[in-house]
Design a protein that fits this description.
The chain is an alpha/beta fold and 294 residues long. It folds into 3 domains: 80 residues, Arc Repressor Mutant, subunit A, CATH 1.10.10.10; 96 residues, 3-Layer(aba) Sandwich (D-Maltodextrin-Binding Protein, domain 2), CATH 3.40.190; 95 residues, Periplasmic binding protein-like II (D-Maltodextrin-Binding Protein, domain 2), CATH 3.40.190. Helix content is 42%, strand content 21%. The strands form 2 sheets. The chain has an 8-stranded mixed beta sheet with strand order 4-3-5-10-6-9-7-8. Strands 1-2 form a two-stranded antiparallel ribbon. Helix 1 crosses helix 4. The model has no long low-confidence stretch (mean pLDDT 88).
Length: 294
């Protein structure tokens, strides 16, 4: 079936002008002159046989026909952009990354400016909502996860580093390791077994005066820093707090049995490959730095 559609350049010019409300702004977006936009819209009006804009040239308004055409045309260009971005293997555009919230805040974001400086055309969009065992099915390009094998099928698994964990608390608490603690043991919903896991691996019984549970890991860490109790926390999430003296670790840190890994779709994706390569290098540098795990 032969489609009767006008010039795509004319359609783009009208859509940009209608969406942005000004010919000048449309010209800037399309990297053409104001006159070129006006000429393309005039060609489109002649092809359609209707007027799309009315009023003064410096502040044109959409006509009834223009208002009818614009939403469908914007949706069509959005759909076209999405289809192209899904198959185009370029070094620019959006990259959707799923990552646990506290790890994002305390480890990834402080390093992300290095990636942005190296690849300014890649827009990394971080999302902490994806927590499924198969995050790639949630339509993320890359996912950072902490756990242990087996990992989901059909993805590339890139190890970052093994996790170590241990009890941490504010210096003001003055706890004695060999005696029961007169403060609460802090827990988080996302890892309720942290204390029992640590006790099993360390052989040390943890006895506190009550307990408190927090919805998010970073809430629990802030509570520990504020002196509200003792939490079992992974070294990567508290390294800066330990080095700065905001927290102390009376027992040090031991292997938790978990690992931080990157999960990447196996389909060709230049942006994802560049990000994963940078992430692996950042993890290697972290492991050999002064804030690496003890």
């Amino acid at each position: 079936m032969r489609r009767r559609i006008p010039s795509l350049n004319a359609l783009r010019a009208f859509e940009a002008a209608g969406r942005m409300g000004r010919m000048k702004l449309a010209a800037e977006e399309l990297c053409v002159t104001h006159g070129a936009v006006s000429k393309q819209i005039q060609h489109l009006e002649e092809w359609l046989g209707v007027i799309l804009f009315e009023g003064p040239k410096n502040a044109p308004k959409l006509t009834e026909a223009g208002n009818a055409l614009l939403p469908a045309l914007t949706a069509a260009f959005d759909q076209l952009d999405l289809a192209i971005s899904q198959i185009a293997d370029t070094e620019e555009g959006m990259l959707d990354v799923s990552c646990p919230g506290t790890f994002t805040m305390r480890w990834l974001i402080p390093r992300l400016h290095h990636f942005n400086a190296q690849y300014p055309s890649i827009d990394v969009r971080l999302n902490s909502s994806g927590t499924s065992s198969d995050p790639i099915k949630d339509n993320f390009d890359v996912a950072i996860r902490v756990g242990c094998a087996p990992w989901p099928q059909g993805v590339d698994v890139i190890p970052l580093f093994n996790e170590k964990f241990g009890p941490v608390h504010a210096p003001a608490l003055h706890l004695i390791p060999s005696k029961p603690w007169n403060v609460p043991l802090l827990h988080t919903v996302s890892r309720r077994s942290a204390w029992s896991d640590w006790s099993t691996r360390s052989g040390i019984e943890s006895i506190g005066e009550g307990s408190a549970e927090f919805e998010h890991f970073y809430f629990m860490l802030e509570a520990a820093i504020a002196g509200l109790g003792v939490s079992v926390s992974p070294w990567p999430l508290v390294a800066e707090d330990i080095l700065s003296g905001r927290l102390i670790a009376p027992f040090g840190f031991i292997e938790s049995g978990l690992s931080y890994v990157v999960l990447k779709r196996r389909k060709q994706n230049r942006k994802a490959a560049l990000f994963c390569g940078w992430l692996k290098k950042a993890a290697d540098e972290y492991s050999g730095s002064g804030v690496s795990q003890p």
